[in-house]
Each structure stands twice: as C-alpha cells, then as structure tokens.
C-alpha cells in the first residue's frame, strides 16, 4: 500500500487538479463563511455592514454604540450556559441577562458557529465529487490501474489506497475550513462561543459525512470505471441533502404528535405560566424523535402529545428513515429546529455517527466487491 500511495501522492502534487481544488475551496468557502459571519447582527453593525438592527419590531435597536451589550464577547456568560439556554435550567441571573438584557441575541452566535463548523463538509464535498472523477479517472484512462494489477498489486489494495487518499483530502479540506473560520473571526473581530462537547462532535461528523459522500463517488468510479457515472452519482449524493429521507420522515413523525397551545390542559397552561421559561427544560426522546418538556423534574405534556396518531408500524418505519439518513443532523438543525446542545447531549449525533459509518462500509463494500469481479479494459 505504501508504494501505491507514494505514486498517487506524487501524481497528486505534480498534477493541476489538487491545486485547482484548493484554490476553488478557499475562494468559495471563504466567501460563504464571510457572508455567514458578516451578517450576524452584532458583527454587521460593528463592521459597518449595516447601521442598525431592529429587535423584534420594537423600539430597541443595535447600534455601534450599544452593540457590545448584545454579543457573547465580554458578556461574562460562559459558553456552556449559552449553549444550554432554554434547554436546561440556568442560574436565574444568567437567564435574565440573556433573555431580557441581551434579547436572546447571543443564541444566533451559537447557531452560526455550529452551522459553520458542522457544514465544513458542504463546499468540500461538492468540489470533491468533481475532483474524484478527474484525478482518479485518469488513473483508469491512462492504464495506471491496469498496470498496477499486472504488477501484482491486488485490486483490494489499490482501492483501499485510493480510499485512504480520498479520506486524507476530505480531512485536509475540513481542517482548512476551520482555519478559514478562525481567520475571518479575527478579521471581523467576532469571538464566537466555543463549547467543545458540541462543536468537536459536530466537526468530526462533518468529516465523516464528507467521507460518506466521496465514498459514493470513488466507489462508483472503481465499480463501473466511468467518470460520468461517478460524477452524476456524487452530485446526486450531495443533492440528497435537500430532499433527504429524514426531512420527509421527521415532518410526518412530528405532525403525528404536534399539539397547539389550545390543546393543553388549563393546569398545564397555569403551571408553565407560573414557572417561567427558565424552569422549562427540554430533552429529546429518541424513541419517538420528539422533544419532551419538564418542570422541576416532572414531565409536562407540551408541544408534543404523549402518543402518535400513527400506528406503531408506521412510526417505526419513519424512525428508520430518520435515523438511517446520513444528513440527519443537518436536516434536524435546519428544518426541525432542535438545538445543537440537545443533539449532542441526548445522543442524536452519536446515532448520526453510526449511520454514516454504516453507509461508508456499505458503499465501499459493494464497490470493492464489484471492482474485484470486473475486467479492466484499459
């Protein structure tokens, strides 16, 4: 494997493909990261991107003079408390500062940094599904793969070497994305709330998701030997983010248990009103994919009913579609609206790790089996 990798690395460094990939990555990823950070209320005002931001259509505004009041930086609030705001009970003074004095503005900073770290995979994957058919496809078209097989190297070793190189590039691009984020944070003078128990799993999941996508691309190339097929299937896998199984299945699951405020009992309404928002804690119930709410440790039926209106078999089928989706965390964060802290704490990220690991093994196992069986014609 060492000799195969050395040869591939030599061609990689000497070729134009990797340098074009890196140039495009830094350009595109840098642009989207800049837009994401620069449009944060606090950053936009401080950098002159806009003059003022109105808060909740009220008289309160964020200006250059008072912007510091509404941001995490120098607020004295820990990142840990900010991440679990409206999920776990905070010291009342801390809750009031976030909720009232800062009008919950730092919550958008949490969502922004999580989105930036987790979505490191997106630009990298789009460019990789273009890069793979071009670079690795040339190894087929110029006879390199056939010569390696003729030279006594097993197809399994050749495939695994290519896969390892692909993973290494995925990792480099995801790390480069973090560097871009860090540099732009310095330039735009934004200190994001960093809480590693959430952001570290998010980054690792981004790397794994990148590898899931590129596994489809490189696997289809080696299995079929066609650049066009690898290109198309790679882009289908990227596009699947926008029509993923968890997007449709989670919508059906939640609709089967969603309640309106008018469905609540009078006792529950009164209890929630008396306790206040800081005492309403949230936990994810993975057996139903819903949020459950608690006041002083006691369950209250709020937002979601206790049982689904769907038959158990339907619920179980929908749960398989939700938890088997490699894009689960992205879909859940964007469309369902569950918080990053809850997803990390309650095991949703761990499930998504397992789902991506399964699909990586499945895609590559099938591709390797077909590659071993087929004849090399060039």
Q: DSSP strand (E) fraction?
A: 5-15%
What radius of gyration results from the CA coordinates?
Answer: 24 Å
Which shape, going by the Cα principal axes? flat
Major sheet details: 3 strands, antiparallel
Q: Give the strand order, joined by hyphens, for the main sheet.
A: 3-4-5
Order of helices and strands: HHHEEHHHHHHHHHHEEEHHHH
Structural class: mainly alpha
Write down how many β-strands occur, each being a DSSP E stretch of 2 or more residues: 5
How many domain regions?
Answer: 2
The CA-CA distance between the termini, in Å, is: 22 Å
Rounded average pLDDT: 88
Low-confidence stretches: 51-59
Number of helices: 17
Fraction of residues in H or I helices? 55-70%
Q: Would you give an account of this structure?
A:
- The two termini are 22 Å apart.
- Helix 7 packs antiparallel against helix 11 (227-239) and helix 10 runs antiparallel to helix 11 (227-239).
- The radius of gyration is 24 Å and the shape is flat.
- The strands form two sheets. A three-stranded antiparallel β-sheet has the order 3-4-5, with helices on one face.
- It has 17 helices and five strands.
- Residues 51-59 have low confidence and may be disordered.
- A hairpin with a 6-residue loop joins strand 1 and strand 2.
- The protein has 378 residues and is mainly alpha-helical.
- The longest helix is centred in the middle third of the chain and has 33 residues, at 155-187.
- The protein folds into two domains: 2-246 and 359-373, no CATH class; 247-353, no CATH class.
């Amino acid at each position: 494997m060492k000799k195969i990798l050395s040869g591939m690395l030599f061609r990689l460094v000497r070729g134009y493909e990797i340098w074009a990939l890196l140039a495009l990555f830094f350009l595109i990823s840098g642009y989207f990261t800049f837009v994401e950070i620069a449009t944060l209320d606090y950053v936009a005002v401080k950098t002159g991107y806009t003059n003022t931001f109105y808060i909740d259509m009220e008289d309160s505004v964020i200006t250059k003079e008072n912007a510091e009041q509404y941001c995490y930086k120098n607020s004295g609030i820990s990142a840990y408390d900010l991440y679990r705001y409206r999920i776990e009970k905070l010291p009342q003074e801390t809750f009031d500062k976030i909720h009232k004095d800062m009008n919950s503005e730092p919550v958008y900073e949490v969502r922004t940094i999580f989105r930036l770290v987790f979505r490191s995979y997106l630009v990298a994957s789009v460019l990789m599904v273009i890069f793979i058919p071009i670079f690795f496809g040339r190894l087929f078209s110029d006879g390199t793969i056939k010569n390696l097989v003729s030279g006594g190297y097993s197809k399994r070793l050749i495939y695994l070497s290519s896969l390892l190189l692909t993973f290494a590039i995925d990792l480099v691009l995801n790390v480069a994305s973090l560097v871009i984020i860090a540099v732009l944070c310095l330039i735009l003078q934004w200190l994001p709330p960093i809480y590693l128990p959430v952001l570290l799993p998010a980054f690792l999941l981004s790397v794994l998701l990148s590898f899931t996508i590129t596994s489809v691309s490189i696997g289809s190339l080696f299995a079929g030997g066609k650049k066009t097929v690898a290109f198309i299937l790679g882009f289908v896998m990227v596009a699947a983010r926008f029509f993923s199984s968890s997007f449709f299945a989670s919508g059906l699951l939640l609709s089967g248990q969603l309640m309106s405020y008018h469905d609540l009992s009078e006792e529950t309404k009164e209890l929630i009103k008396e306790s206040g928002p800081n005492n309403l804690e949230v936990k994810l119930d993975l057996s139903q994919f819903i949020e459950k709410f608690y006041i002083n440790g006691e369950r209250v039926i709020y937002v979601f009913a206790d049982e689904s209106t769907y038959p158990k078999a339907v619920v179980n089928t929908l749960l398989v579609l939700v938890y088997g989706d490699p894009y689960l965390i992205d879909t859940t964060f964007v469309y369902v609206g569950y918080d990053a802290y809850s997803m990390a704490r309650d095991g949703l990220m761990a499930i998504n790790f397992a789902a991506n690991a399964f699909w990586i093994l499945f895609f590559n196992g099938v591709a390797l089996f077909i590659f071993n069986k087929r004849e090399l014609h060039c």
